[in-house]
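Hi there, hope your week has been kind to you so far. For a while now I've been wondering how a particular protein folds. I'm sending you its amino acid sequence along with the backbone structure tokens. Could you read through the record and tell me how the tokens relate to the sequence? Take your time with it, there's no hurry, and the full record follows here.
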Amino acid sequence: MSKLAHIDTWIFDLDNTLYPPSCKLFDQIAEKMNEYIIAKMGVSREEAIKLRYVYFKKYGTTLRGLMIEHGWEPEPYLDYVHEIDYNAVELAPELADAITKLPGRKLVFTAGTRAHARNVLKNLGCMDIFEDIFDIGDAQFIPKPSQEPYDLFLKRHGIEPTTSIFFEDIAENLIVPRAMGMKTVLVGQADEALLPAHVDYVTADLAAFLNGALK
């Protein structure tokens, strides 16, 4: 971890990174997506699920597909799909303490909304730790792993990539940060021997990893 002594900017994805996948928040969001598409298009649930899959594969997010193919406004959709129960996200005092102790800047980079991020961070006990939240609106509704949102993020916050580190639960979303010069950490279960070249570290325990980074 002495290799991280130069890091002064710590960038965290939100969903399934700062909280575990076992919370299953996206299961709720996915069902809300289905409901919204069904109500607006008059299709069956099966058709809504198929449409979500097709647009996700083609455009990176269902929302991006709905905007491009159907001209939908993003805000009503995003407001609706994030009306979920956040009680599954519990206080994480060890994580909050570990992030607080990190030297330098701490930022959240999420494909969700700022309101969604705030709800998650509040339940985690991390609400006042981060300098800012960069959300899907700030990214002009262009999802990771496209280059554009990362460029917008760096420009907005004046970030020097070579002294930054990016935490993500999806390996593909670490390709651009690594190419920019950032250190990268895949959060979740993975075989270290099989990690792609753009992933520097892997951890299934984010708090423990961060505590180790200070030693």
